[in-house]
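Hi R.,

As promised, here are both runs. First protein below:
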Amino acid sequence: MPLTDTAVRNAKPEAKPRKLADEKGLFLLIHSNGSKYWRFKYRFGGKEKLLSLGVYPDVSLAQARQRRDDARKLLANEVDPGVFKQEAKRANREIAGNSFEAVGREWYAKHSPNWAASHGDKIIRRLERDIFPWIGNRPIAEITAHVLLATLRRIENRGALETAHRAHQNCSQVFRYAVATGRAERDPSVDLRGALPPAKEKHHPSITDPMAIGELMRAVEGYRGSFVTRCALQLAPLLFVRPGELRRAEWSEVDLDKSEWRIPGEKMKMKVVHIVPLCSQAVTVLRELHALTGQGKYVFPGVRTPSRPMSENTVNSALRRLGYGKEELTGHGFRSMASTLLNEHGWNRDAIERQLAHAERDSVRAAYNYAEHLPERRKMMQEWADYLDGLKTGAKILTFKSN
């Protein structure tokens, strides 16, 4: 007699597993712990076999009968439903493993160890926020230029044109990796060249007028927030490293006796050791800060979790408290400030570029020349700090050009 929904729902477990038969080979297996499994008994190639059809109540009686009927159709065509199910699972796993997200994460895992942490974080966040939700589960080989463009348009339409261009570039890198690993035939992103309007070049807001710089230095000196943040504000214009490099500074990298900070290559954008000569003013600030944070790992530890560096927004937030809007100055703007004035005052351009740790076209040369122009850079950094002190006190300093 065929089963009913009521009979299935009310079936109670017993000391040993038991079966409730439906018809045409379908039955419900009830374990002693109360779990209920649908099974289909059939014969293929002269052997009796069982096919799992799901778990009750996730799979209802009607659904179990439909799955049984599908299996019987396969048998009628001389196809083993058990083998068919395993092949389908394998195909689904292969499709999932070849999805854009799976390939993208594989590409990221392979290449991110060679990037600066901040750079890698931006890429994976961009993919997770703007790309994966829309095309992540699609087989990468089936994604067309039209589908990719629709995804990029979503970013463009919210006004983030530069992000759209960067996402386009990252997607192209993932597609090329898929081609190299045999998961795709070509990179469809190349068909989208010119599809997005060009992004306007953005420059980090900065202050380069000497009088305004003097006002800024006095404002920093009068900062009344956290002592750690105040020290970061004081060092930012003196050292003009990238904001991420400053906030992730570790005491083990700093030698106050030698007046030197050596940033390991893995922290740098170009993966090359970077030497930052410390002017006397910077050493003074760091010695004061060492009394507070020197027992920990980071020079600028986070407020909530000292085991991690301060937030990437700390310096910018402090500048806002001082009254400088995001269109006037950012933490990155201290680099533009130093670059502009050092060049205007006639310092060696190569020494300036090396101190800014700008990209060296020849990576081999860069690896061996991280100390290039170091004596001149030491002198430049000290005279730059003295110049800023002069502006802060209102002194009339016309030049600090190297002789």
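And here is the second one, sequence first, then its structure tokens:
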Amino acid sequence: MKIQYNKLWKLLIDKNMKRVDLRRVTGISANSIAKLGKNEPVRMDVLMKIAEALDCKVEDLFETFKEEK
């Protein structure tokens, strides 16, 4: 399974926020932001901090799909 955080980036655009703003309001590390930008998995507590800061559900931040072989 692969993960994409396109929903998160669209949500940030809708809220007129940048990645640096997200980092500031959530307190998550620059490393976590980098992982999100590369569509790499991050810990659930990171996703929960983001969802709380953006007033949304965790499932509103990403989507998963099967990798084609």
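A quick note on the second one: Residues 2-65 form a domain with the 434 Repressor (Amino-terminal Domain) fold (CATH 1.10.260.40). Let me know what you think.

Best,
J.
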